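Good morning C.,

I know you're traveling, so I'll keep this short. The sequence:
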Amino acid sequence: MIHFRKTLLAALMASTLYAPAAQAAAGKALKAEVAAGVDAQTKQIQVMVDQVFSYAEPGFQEVRTSAYLEDILEKNGFTVTRGVAGIPTAFTATWGSGGPLIALGSDIDDLLGVSQVPGIPNIKPLVAGAPGHGEGHNSGMPLVIAAAIATKAVMEKNHIPGRLMIWPGVAEELLATKAYYVRAGLFNGVDACIFNHVGSDFTTAYGDLGMNGMVSVEYTFHGKTAHAAGDPWDGRSALDGVEIMDTAWNFRREHLPVTQRSHYVITDGGDQPNVVPGKASVWYYFRDRTFGAVRSLYDTGNEIAEAAAKATGTTVTRQVLGYAAPDWGNKPLAEAAYANIQAVGMPKWSADDQAFAKAVQTVNTRKIEPLHDKVTALSTPENRPQSLGGGSDDIGDIMWTVPTITIRYPSNIPNTIGHNVTSAMAMATPIAHKGVVVGAKALAMTVLDLMTTPRILSDAKAYFTDVQLKADHYDPVLTPADKPAIWLNTKTMKELRPAMEKYYYDPAKYPTYLDQLGIKYPTLTPQ
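The tokens, ready to paste straight into the viewer:
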């Protein structure tokens, strides 16, 4: 506690760079109180993290996950609105009156095909072929909820005006909802948004974050069936249209910017070989660094699809399934949050935690690196390398709507593979639980700063207007006819949920999910 107070005092002294003494950040007593409020929820954090891990629901099918989180928020005095933006598993949970409106969010969906037993260092699915939390999204909303509950208690006790809005990122792995949240006006009137994402580090960032924007679109070719052997000349193959489009796109790659990323899967290739396919579909992600570049890729894809249809005597239609804007973090918000990240510091990792991390890295031939014991430097345009493109996150749509940052918190193991079972191995272990606790403290302390220090929000808005919007402007490719693709993953979960339900965590019977699964922590050898 002495170390915590010393580092906290240093962070508070640094905050005078951004606010006059009369508007200093929230006092150390308030921050110590809200940190204690998070500590008091340590057991509940573990239960929430483990519970959501066990549900393992992919995009648009987060039915159990959303209902579970909504229930916790309602029991803690938040007003929940379900099914927002036309998305059944999306919701907002609001509380408070007067003062600023601060939005807090994190993603809740998982990935197809990465089911994994937690707490062991080797690949072993809970249910073969089922989805799993191979990015760690099971930890983010527990962090947000713990921070919100602690903040609410401090604000009530100390009569601090202000409002909170909790929201989940639905179907983030499909990049399929946040643009619709923005279009539906969910962030109208929000003064600032703090998003949270799992990592092995503890930091935040501002400026152009170097990630790609993206449009997700499915092309469906329509042809004419015929007997593939006896009467092929009377058929027009929709699959030929798909294959020619894919071939043409792959040739075109040589002449596209180095920052672009594009990939596809054939979602419908016909029914059986002796029938000329009358319908076939291919699903593309087009990614690049700017709004204009994403739109250009999308236009190029549309042109190639039309050309492939003409070449094969078919027709083609397209449907946008998702969109993500490039990410851009707000400098004043990031600086305020980073001071609190430094004050909180990294979790106190045990020898068991370090041993398990090393076992995961060793068994899966990853680079050996201990769990971090120091906070990562604040990421800025000056210390980040030049981006040559890469991944996407649809938090970008909110970042171009209101001042927003992402806090990365240390709930996973360094050097595991993203979107992979190795990134699920630690996500229902003490490593995940401890990372959520420190992340929730930093988040809650930052929210108190925003509620009590008007200067931070005014600086954040000025940066948003005078710096960010001078660099580019929000330009999604969505049209009024585009709707959230809420049907995605329905068939998968209908088939797999009965087998998955057997592994749902029961905290009334078992202290932890590892206990329920009969796994001793740390397990260091393959099971």
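Safe travels,
E.
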